[in-house]
Amino acid sequence: MSVGLVEVIYGPMFAGKSSELIRQVRLAKIAGIECRVFKPIIDTRYIAEKVCNHDGQSIDVKVVKNSEEILNFIDNKTQKVFIDEAQFFDRYLPEVVDKISRNLKMDVICAGLNLNYRGEAFGPMPKLMGLAQKTISLSAICTHTDNGKICGGRAYFTDRLVESDENIILGEKDVYAARCEKHWRINFPNL
Q: Is 163 a catalytic residue?
């Protein structure tokens, strides 16, 4: 008995996670595969009903309040499910993804931040990564500037540029930056 593939695309801010998700959705549509694309209601950046990347590319999406609501929008025509900003979903997302892949036998591709700005596992991402048969780890470019020169190294971490006790602050380059381990550790030297 076959099951659907679970794939997780992960990395820091500005690594191209949503771009890869958009690319895969477009390829699936070219192949005539019926897709459903979801994102959480908390992601209010850009256009509400779209998955957007930092370069302005976008695809239509269904915005949902919680992970279980995803199941309400999957029908017998659906062949593949895509979920963006997976880190913002509730703790039930791995169960929903498992149900879609095992019971409904559909591929599920999730994209999200694996770590928050403190370097801690972010939301349901660790469990999703544990379910995945395929993972894609993306890196960004470290934009730390020292004496006018950008580092340019591989960035696997997200640095928050504003002071706040909030765990989640939505933002872009005005709030977050991609960092290599050396420059990320400047803010967290004891980790």
A: no
Helix (H, G, I), strand (E, B) or coil at 59: strand
Class of domain 145-184: alpha beta
**pLDDT for the residue numbered 142:** 97
Residues recorded for the chain: 191
Check residue 167 and report its DSSP letter: S
pLDDT along the chain (191 residues), means of 10: 89 93 93 95 63 60 94 95 96 98 97 93 96 97 93 94 72 80 76 58
CB atoms under 10 Å from CB of 18, counted, come to 23
Q: What are the C-alpha distances in Å from 187 to residues 80, 128, 161?
A: 40, 28, 10
Question: Residue 40: which of 52, 32, 48, 31 has the closest Cα?
Answer: 48
Catalytic residue among 7, 34, 85, 172: 85
Q: Which of 3.40.50.300, 3.30.43.10, 1.25.40.10, 3.40.50.1390 is the CATH number of 6-138?
A: 3.40.50.300
For residue 84, give every residue at least 6 positions away whose Cβ sits within 8 Å of its Cβ, in sequence order, or none: 17, 18, 21, 37, 38, 39, 43, 51, 61, 110, 111, 112
